[in-house]
Amino acid sequence: MIAFHVNGEAVRVDVDPEMPLLWCLRDHLQLTGTKYGCGEAYCGACVIHLDGEAVRACVTPVAKASGRQVTTIEGLSEHGDHPVQRAWREENVPQCGYCQSGQIMSAAALLAEVPAPTDDQIDQSMAGNVCRCGTYDRIRKAIHRASQEQG
Amino acid sequence: MPSARHPSPRRRPGLLGRFSKDLLALIVPAAAVVAGVGLLGCAPNGAKHLDSGEPLQPPSAFAAVADDAERSQAMFAEAARVLLHPRCVNCHPSDDSPRQLDSSRMHVPRVTRGTKGDGAAGLRCASCHQSENLSFTRVPGAPHWQLAPIEMAWFGKTPREVCEQLKDPARNGGRDADALVEHMRTDPLVAWGWDPGADRAPVPGDQNTFADLIRAWLDTGAVCPPDTTTPGAAS
């Protein structure tokens, strides 16, 4: 049995400790906002926060979450009003939307550490999040907007 | 690819419908692969060192070389088979991005060293790399997985250049001779080179033989090989 917190709630799961955390979140805890893209850490669709740090859930064994705080897109804010989420709406960032939960979680982790990132810092931090619709310009713009809004 | 042990998580029908989501699951990794292929041509000339695969020769194998300086040079050239192997130089880059695979291609995704060598904010090395190799994915891991400091860049260097760096505390992490040997013998990230997981080629020999070579090189005057020496060429 592996115990940890997801979006502030204590959970206990009886799964293989080597199961990817993404599998556990989606199939056992029904948190399907985090997406499965490549399963090999290339695309960033599965980015979540583990104790506040962005990690790729597809290559994180669930045992690594033991005793720690997991935050998924569902728990980034109570009402979907995290500054990054607001900026995403205001800039109409998503197109198909599949990669966007991972994009938002990476952006939130960046802004938590670098409140006013430069374009270069944004590009470096978001380099691991692939968007097949090519929304990169709007993503960068939205991160700047979120940065300004969160002060 | 997801393993049979942990099949891919179920995708539940949503706004896009099951077909569209399955299609996207194919397209997203395909885009990542295309991005990776696009980067291949960007790799500067550098590592591309493929080892002979012969056993790493211990210091005793060089006993017949009577001259201390020549023996020192020869032992360093042998140790350079480890130092300049892709498993080592891929994370000792001369720029801000690691390389990967035996071909030392640019790392995919295109990560950068950040301010501390452990990645950019929101994209740390530890975002993907755990403290050990994983059974269900090719992603390698070891304790304190990170890039070597830029002053310790070895990628694209010759054995002589790396030799001079190792003797310079300003470019070897501030280590004296004993600390250098200790690092080579016991550091878990160094040790990963012999147990790289997946289908990656390990560095030759074993960690103790490698550390013994460094010790013996230091004890014989730490003489660096000529500019033209290639890894292992003096053995």
Secondary structure layout:
The complex is a heterodimer of chains A (151) and B (235).
Chain A: E1 2-6, E2 9-13, H1 21-28, E3 47-50, E4 53-56, E5 69-71, H2 83-90, H3 100-113, H4 119-125, H5 136-150
Parallel strand pairs in A: 1-5
Antiparallel strand pairs in A: 1-2, 3-4, 3-5
Chain B: H1 17-40, H2 68-83, H3 86-89, E1 99-100, E2 105-106, E3 119-120, E4 123-124, H4 159-167, H5 177-186, H6 188-191, H7 207-219
Antiparallel strand pairs in B: 1-2, 3-4
| C-alpha geometry of chain B | globular
The radius of gyration of chain B is 21 Å
**Domain tally of chain B:** 1
Integer average pLDDT of chain A: 97
Kindly describe this structure.
The complex is a heterodimer of chains A (151) and B (235). Chain A has 151 residues and is α+β, with helices and mostly antiparallel strands. Chain A has two domains: 74 residues, Beta-grasp domain (Ubiquitin-like (UB roll)); 68 residues, [2Fe-2S]-binding domain (DNA polymerase, domain 1, Orthogonal Bundle), CATH 1.10.150.120. Chain A has five helices and five strands, in the order ββαβββαααα. A five-stranded mixed beta sheet of chain A has the order 2-1-5-3-4, with helices on both faces. In chain A, α2 crosses α5. The relative contact order of chain A is 0.17. Chain B is built from seven helices and four strands. About 16% of the residues of chain B have low confidence.
